[in-house]
Amino acid sequence: MRRGPELGIRIALALGAAVAMMLLCATLPHAQAGAPADDHQYLSPSEMTFSPDGRLLYVVCERSDQLLVLNAKDGSILQRIRVGHIPRTVAVSPDGRQVFVTNSWDDTVSVIDAATVDASPNRSTTPGATRTIMTGAEPYGVVVDRAGKTLYVANRVSNDVSVIDIATGVERKRLMAGHGASYLAISADGSRVYCTHVYPRIGAQRTVPQSEITVIDTAREGVVERIPLEGVAGMFHVALSSDGRMGVVAQMRPKNLVPLAHVEHGWAFGHSLTVFGADAGGMIEVPLDELEHYYSLQYGVAITPDKSRIFVTASGSDVVTVIDTKRLLAFARGRRKPFVNDLSASANYVLARIAVGKNPRGVAMSPDGKRLYVANRMDDSLSVIDTVSNKSVRTIDLGGPKNITEMRRGEQLFTTSRYAFQGQFSCANCHIDSTFDGLTWDLEPDGFGKDIVDNRLIEDLSGTEPFKWNGGNPSMAQECGPRTEMYFYRSQSYAPDDLTDLVDYIYSLPTRPNRFRLPDGQLTPAQERGKAIFYRKLSKFGKAIPETNQCAYCHSGPKHTSQKSFDVGTGKWTDRSPIFDTPQLVNIAMTAPYLHDESARSLEEIWTVFNPRDQHGATNDLTKDELNDLIEYLKTL
Amino acid sequence: MKARILTALLFATLPLAGAVKSAAVKPATARNHAETLAASMPRFRWENFTTANGLPDNHVFAVLVDGDRVWAGTENGLALFEGGGWKVFTPKDGLAHRAVLSLAVDKNTGDLWVGTMGGLSHISAGRIDTYTQLNSGLSNDVVYGVGVQGDFVWTATAAGASRLNTRTGEWSLYNERNTPMAEIWTYAVSTGADKVYYAVWGSGVLEYTIATGRWKDYTDPDGENELVLFKDQGLIHKITTSVSYVDNTLWAATYFGDSHYDGRSWHNFLTKDSGLPSNFTNQVKGLDASRAWFCTDKGLAYYDGVNWAVYRPALDTGKPEMYIRDASGKITPVAVQTAPAHNYVLGIDVQGDDVWVATAKGLSHGIRQK
């Protein structure tokens, strides 16, 4: 295991390099298009879209904060345009004149004048955005209405969709969407926008996960339908057929209500599609796994213009699955009962599994439907698939570094499912985009039905050890190594170097911006009052609060964890012990539900429901106003 | 007094007390004047909805018009009238409580906010999310009033006012500790672009100025609970039940008369000197600075700025009744064939020329007659 000071030095060096790079970028002309980027400046292409005339391909690179503009004909890179931090998706106005890129950690959309994109290859300028538009928290998906006047942006952290006037940049409204709203698609006639979300709806503990496809009427700019998806958690892209009669969503079906035991005998996750609309006769769920092999983390979806085929990326399995639509619908019509749990079903409609690069994510279909472009996020490349022969005919190198650092290898290991039995899942199944999954799991070693636990946000983990809710794993190497091999993957173990790289990658994950802090770092009056409560030592009646019952005692230090375990009265009959590790509180606002078993659906319930005897901090003397203040402060951590 | 209002609210089993006779009507001496006046006041054909034709309960606490759709808050669920039929939402569907007390639509998003006896529900395209005093920052589960102002949802609860910032999720509570609110039993809320008004039972009217974030109270200046010493000096009474803010004008209802405030002057209405059928008013809905509807325990009243019209089943015979009171106090009966379902009226909303009225024994649709 390599960690501690050595890791600190590496992070410091990496940070130093990043700062130096930023300074260079600010003072020097940008690198020649197509030229190798900085050795450590991986691109991580994730999403793409074509210009309306099909001449240009826009590629979003999450890691390098760039939008690449490619000549779709020959794959040459025309420009590398600097956008905001951690860009996610891209959309083009119907007239092709404006390009919109969501910057997830800036809460903005970069607006790029397409006219500045010179058609001559190897142009060196990086004009960047002509302006930026503010959005909700952590914008992901973006679409433009058919009139080119309104922008719809899905905001993952604020769980909504921003409706923005493009001309003025004014956000007209926010529409409530699903938990972790992320991906959008607009119907061909422009009348509807469809939104998916990556976390399940926050509901009663240990119930079947619920998700929805949020349907927005663009004329009313309002939500008109929420298509319910039962048993689904983790929805990614949605695509619509050109005639509007069929929609397809890539998704996961976690099996979290049964003990996660004997993965080799059952499932941890099913990977499937939801097909909806008139062609489907409503809604059908379609399994994509096979009897002895799984295709994990379905992510990008595209439908050919003639609807004959559906293409889906399995981002954990490095393949694109090709589905024969006619056979699929015929098969579905012949099955009277749901068949989403039938692993033999996919043989009836899967035409091909096409190997592509590492961690394939977004896809873009050429306007003529002949080519499918696939963004290989962990390879810094695009795969080009001939949609007639169902073969990968070309790989476009986007010019990322050729050497693979240990950290990069760690990230690749995080996203691949090849270590799990029959390729069922990867780290990223439960830690979606390196976050969490909003589910509780029943792990086998505790005994069936015992120690029901959720997983936590895994950002900025240094200083939060030990791991597991019972504090049983003193290090991440143990958490990710023997424990994962024995209880999760049930298969191939990590080689020592692999494990080290994986742990280094996980430890490198930074903390995302906290949206509840004021820009100047000051606290609002309510947050200030809440802070005083958090650090108080006396009750409102002047009595000393025992040290172990003060918020700041257990939740101490920079990550607000003492790294010790306590009994705070939250143990349930299912828990073998009521003593739990003190969780870090970083970005606690986005990780509902709460407590080790997700029994508290909100921060409020931690104290209004699960703290009757003041064991989880002295709070029962607080008025409702004061509890609200405390929560407002916690949201800033 | 609180017991009285609770009884009034939960009027389910109580017969209405103190029926008063229809206003005495003198023989018409100026027929043309009367006919002209009668023609100028809105006349309706009333269609009534009860459990017999789709309502989940006859006790209707609130009604809200949203375009072609009509929402009715009843004692046993929320009812939606759409396309000629009723759809009912209950706690089985996720509604916070079966007794629905208040309704507000967010005109920006089209979402509905529902105040109940057990929390606040948010309905968006069929999805229901519920906020309670346990799972959120809501001050109290009894939500008498709800209003939407921009990104904020204001609620009037049995333990003060709450404001939810729908973008950040922050709850701000307003009560005796941070407002001039002697009582914390907030009963209704009305939102405008610049101000938010609360009817506080026992504490008059509270005004929140959005630009400054400051509160101001209006209460009965003579301090007499049951007497009115100075009629137009200020709010008629501090036992307020409803507020309606429109055209920079505040309309306030109390159990002892009603008030109109234009920012400078107060004008109050009592049965003895207006066309109000009763001083006991459950809701007032201002249409503009001079016109308003009054929902009383003895019928529905309309005020056009000068004249009054009252619609109800006659208190003695129960037969449909409408009469008009002009500025001179002269009362003119108008022959009608239909009336609202009951004279105990709790709420009203307007749908074009029509009105929808919540009563103790059903929901009434007043279809304007030309």
How is this structure best described in words?
- The complex is a heterodimer of chains A (637) and B (370).
- Chain A has 637 residues and is of the alpha+beta class.
- Among the domains of chain A are: 413-508; 525-634, Cytochrome c-like domain (Cytochrome Bc1 Complex, Chain D, domain 2), CATH 1.10.760.
- In chain A, the strands form 9 sheets. Chain A has a 4-stranded antiparallel sheet, with no helix packed on it. Chain A has a 4-stranded antiparallel sheet with strand order 5-6-7-8, with no helix packed on it. In chain A, strands 9-10-11-12 form a 4-stranded antiparallel sheet, with no helix packed on it.
- Chain A is globular and about 75 Å long.
- With 370 residues, chain B is mainly beta.
- Chain B has one domain: 7 Propeller (Methylamine Dehydrogenase, Chain H).
- Chain B is built from 2 helices and 30 strands.
- A 6-stranded antiparallel sheet of chain B has the order 22-23-24-25-26-27, covered by helices on one side. Chain B has a 4-stranded antiparallel sheet with strand order 1-30-29-28, with no helix packed on it. A 4-stranded antiparallel sheet of chain B has the order 2-3-4-5, with no helix packed on it.
- In chain B, a hairpin with a 2-residue loop joins strand 10 and strand 11.
- Chain A binds chain B through residues 136, 158, 172-176, 212, 214-215, 220, 222-226, 515-516, 526, 589, 601-602, 604-605, 608-609, 623-625, 627-628, 631-632, 635, and chain B through 108-111, 122, 124-127, 129, 133-137, 139, 151, 159, 166-173, 175, 177-178.
